[in-house]
Amino acid sequence: MRCFRFWPALAVISLAACTTAFPQAPNYGNLGRTPSKEEIQAWNQAIGPQGKELPPGSGTAKQGQEIFANKCAACHGPAGEGSQLAPRLVGGRGALNIPTPSRTLANYWPFATTIWDYINRAMPPKQEGSLSASDIYALTAFILYRNDIIPEGQVIDATSLPKVKMPNRDGFIPQRLEDIHDLRARGCGAGHCP
Amino acid sequence: MSSKRSLRRQFLKNGAALAGFAAGAISSPAGKLFAADAPSADLHAYGQRSHFENDVRIGSLAMWPIVPGARRDYGFRSPLQDSMGIITPAPLHFIISHGHEPPDIDPREHRLMIHGMVDRPLIFTLDEIKRLPAVSRLHFLECHGNSAAAGPTGEPRKALAATVQDTHGLTSCSVWTGVPLALLLGQVGVQKGANWIVAEGSETGKHSKSIPLEKALDDCLVVYGQNGEALRPEQGYPLRLLVPGWQGINNVKWLRRIYVVDQPYMAMMESTKYPSARLDGKSRWFESEMGPKSVITRPSGGQQLGARGFYEITGLAWSGGGAVRRVEVSADGGRTWKDAQLQQPIAPKAHTRFGLAWTWNGEEAVLESRCTDDQGHVQPTLAGLNKFWGIDADYYRLPPATADMGNFNAIQPWRVSRDGSVSNALL
Questions:
Q1: Do B264 and A180 meet the contact criterion of CB atoms below 8 Å apart?
Q2: pLDDT tens by residue, B372-387
Q3: In chain B, which residues have their Cβ closer than 8 Å to the Cβ of A119?
């Protein structure tokens, strides 16, 4: 579904190729400007399961422990056990085949990349964006280690993080990310999927 | 009288010279007031509802920190019990922002970037987006937790809640104005291999959500207008995404970025908070489309019927699958059904108003409504949903620990007692 943008020579071809997706794709001229590479880099905070966008940097649980004590423990508890102010980040393991399963990070979250992405976006509250990439790798390593998901010495970086298998990675339907998009094939009628 | 006095005070604010005029105006016919060279009172510059009207949203902004005894869920519910027609006034539209305050965005500074697997990434100003051909469409927007019989951490438990505002107040409907997302994606040129977009907001926390490209190209809108004026800040001013018929979480507010990618990005909400848990320990994620649903808004829980006699049973129906084709109403707890009348307009993925004439004979009655959409999907009974999920009624009495069953769309019964009081009869 590649759609060229208004090359006169290709106009006919591209319109034909895009009929379903873009009925007329007329030329709106100079609306919008091309961002620079740096602009895209600065805005591009989304980290997918493959971790393609993960920035350089690295960290270990040991480094993460100190940052956690300074920046996270006040809300999430000294050992990540949670408090009135914030959910637990460590523990909460238990059965999922019960009516009210525990959805903690260790018990439920399917991807380790989500931890990095979420801390980067949202933590700590009111100082979002204040942590360096290596700080976030270290914090992620600390949380994973305290949950017995990685060994203490493991270095977490752009290569190792996407490879961490979370305990509940296989707990979702459909399991393959490729199959998620098609509600109809999944039989999701009337708002409920089997 | 005190309210009358406050109205007068608003006029008096405009200066002593106008005081006489204002005092006279209160008892004068309205036509006279407007015929006169009216002072630029706030009331005239930007209207307000009558001071006799006092419906408000109810809820709480955040569920953290945990305050003992306080409501424990995100969200402000819309007062459906007094809703008229199908449009929700913007100031009463339900709000869920997962605890984040609306950012104070200067529209001149706001930008939307579209990039990723595209031929030509682009950054748009709001002005540029407004120069593109606009569409206005009627669509409901609903939280996947709306009317949930259990959880997330709602207190009071929604199924046991008294009013339709508590049970169903996380749906609203507006005329949205903006640009089809397909048009913007046409400008950047989506590349082969792209299957998803990730939409991202500009609030603290920068909520992000993966949406299949098919849906993005089908009917999604990049919206700046709501019911004829600019979006309200709590609804995403100055720009938001609208993903018609799908769980509210997709409709990213304060939209600043669309990233075209090959697979879902498994952001925090979609991968950890919104999947619904099955009893076998597996969770379904990306259930996305909201099923057919309806609810009687009058008479509804907490209201009081007067003398026996004529009442119109009225309510709202909607479906994420398309247009509402039929609404049936029962006054005997689902034993017999009658077709309700559907009021125009009936738009796809929009609230539809239904009504049925009813004479209350003074005896106990259980009022229910059932929606069928143009896909032929029928709103289920609670028993039907329970069977599907493999749970029994005890499930709903468990402590509301986590968001377990989303997209709850069971038929909602209201019991009219002999004394005319109306209460929730779901469980």
A1: yes
A2: 999 999 999 999 998 9
A3: none
Contacts of A125 in chain B (CB under 8 A): 204-205
pLDDT at B391: 84
Tell me the chain B residues in contact with residue A126 when contact means C-beta distances shorter than 8 Å. Answer: 204
Q: Could you give the percent of chain A with pLDDT greater than 70? A: 87
Rounded to two decimals, the ipTM of the complex is: 0.88
User: Could you tell me if B413 and B347 lie in one domain?
Assistant: yes
Question: Looking at the domain assignment, is residue B17 inside a domain?
Answer: no
Q: Are B273 and A168 in contact (CB under 8 A)?
A: no
Could you report the per-residue pLDDT of B275-292, keeping only the tens digit for each? 988 889 999 999 999 999
Taking 3-state DSSP, the helix, strand and coil percentages for chain A, each rounded to the nearest 5, stand at 35, 5, 60
Calpha distance B365→A37 (Å, rounded)? 66
Residue from A127, A143, A181 whose CB has the most chain B CBs within 10 Å, to mutate: A181
Q: Of B257, B277, B297, which residue is a domain's last?
A: B277
* CA distance linking residue A2 with residue B117, whole number of Å: 10
Determine the distance in angstroms separating the CA of B422 from the nearest CA of chain A, rounded to an integer: 29
Judge whether B145 and B98 are in contact, CB under 8 Å: no
Q: What is the CATH number of the domain that holds A161?
A: 1.10.760.10
Range of the domain at A154: 46-174
| pLDDT band with cut points at 50, 70 and 90 for residue B208 | very high
pLDDT for the residue B305: 97
Closest partner residue to B189 (CB to CB) among A5, A46, A177 is: A5
Contact B284 A173 (CB under 8 A): yes
B261 pLDDT more than 50: yes
Nearest to A111 among B196, B266, B379 (CB): B266
Q: How many domains does chain B have?
A: 2
